[in-house]
Amino acid sequence: MLFTPLRLFAILVASLATVGWQKRSFPAVVYAQFTQSNQRELASGARYRISENRSFVNDLSCAALSRAGRIVRYDASYQKITFPNGDVPADTGCAADEIIRIYREVGIDLQELVYLDMENSFGSYPREKNKNHPDTNIDHRKVANLQVFFKRFGVTLPPSRNEQDYSPGDLIICTLPNGQPHIAMLVPAPGGGRPWIVHNMGYSPRLEDRLFDFPITGHYRYHPRG
Questions:
Q1: CA 205, CA 57: separation in Å to the nearest integer?
Q2: HEC readout, 172-195
Q3: d(Cα 9, Cα 1) in Å, to the nearest integer?
Q4: Are strands 155-157 and 216-221 parallel, antiparallel or unpaired?
Q5: pLDDT 10s digits, 20-50
Q6: Predicted confidence (pLDDT) per residue in 158-215, tens digit
Q7: How many angstroms separate the CA atoms of 183 and 200, rounded?
Q8: Where are the alpha helices (H) located in 73-158, listed in sequence order?
Q9: Beta-carbon contacts of residue 205 (< 8 Å; ≥ 6 apart)
Q10: What is the DSSP string of 46-68?
Q11: Whether the bond into 195 is cis, omega within 30 of 0
């Protein structure tokens, strides 16, 4: 893709308008703008690998691929949102928000489901200091809580280094170098072979061949409609 001076200037202006000079995420948004077209092309190639037969897994994979190439400033901060089907602004979000948005595309509201389960089994979820009840604004946006939910209601599979153990529609939870838990969804690879992942690690939702880049601590399948 050719970046003319005019296009580069337009990208710069759009990025400044989105995040402002003072935001540390400015370089990440610029990078996302530069690679947006490539991400969309990769997603299109991956969609070609999905069977035309309608199934929950195929719909889930298509929903995940639809996120690749969007410009989303990374922001995991607490915000008040509606309930159910609440979301932070569409141009912001974190790794967990991408999973929430993917499942919403197939009619499943993890915000509501996580809240209801925490309300009934609060002690099953990670304990937080001075917290005695679930919070519809943030609990579903935390990777640790999603991991508990998927353990309780999905299929738990052993993490491995064998690519044959992983399939599109699976979820992985891994640990980033800074110790932060991270979550991603598997989708077909654009060129075939082992699945790629759709995730937001700070550079907007991306489709990447990074299945084994970080230590995997959880591997789940959550397909409530078969």
A1: 19
A2: EEEECCCCCEEEEEEECCCCCCCC
A3: 15
A4: antiparallel
A5: 433 456 788 888 999 999 999 999 999 999 9
A6: 999 999 999 999 999 999 999 999 999 999 999 999 999 999 999 999 999 999 999 9
A7: 8
A8: 95-105, 110-120, 143-153
A9: 67, 68, 69, 70, 72, 98, 198, 199
A10: HHTTS-SS--HHHHHHHHHHTTT
A11: no
Which pair of tokens denotes residue 15?
């990025």
Residue 164 has what DSSP assignment? G
Cα 167 from chain centroid?
16
Q: How many residues does the chain have?
A: 226
d(CA 1, CA 161): 35
Sheet containing 155-157: order of strands: 155-157, 216-221, 171-175, 181-187, 196-199, 206-208
Tokens of 42: 């990769």
> What ranges do the domains of the chain cover?
5-221
The answer to whether 100 touches 72, Cβ cutoff 8 Å, is no
Q: Answer yes or no: are the C-beta atoms of 194 and 163 closer than 8 Å.
A: yes
28: exposed, middle or buried (C-beta count within 10 Å: 0-12, 13-18, 19+)?
buried
Structure tokens at 149: 């939910």
- C-beta separation of 152 from 166 below 8 A: no
| 21 three-class SS | coil
Can you name the residues that pair with 218 across neighbouring β-strands? 173
Q: Provide the CB-side half-sphere exposure for 214 (13 A, CA).
A: 20
pTM for the structure as a whole: 0.88
11's tokens? 């990208």
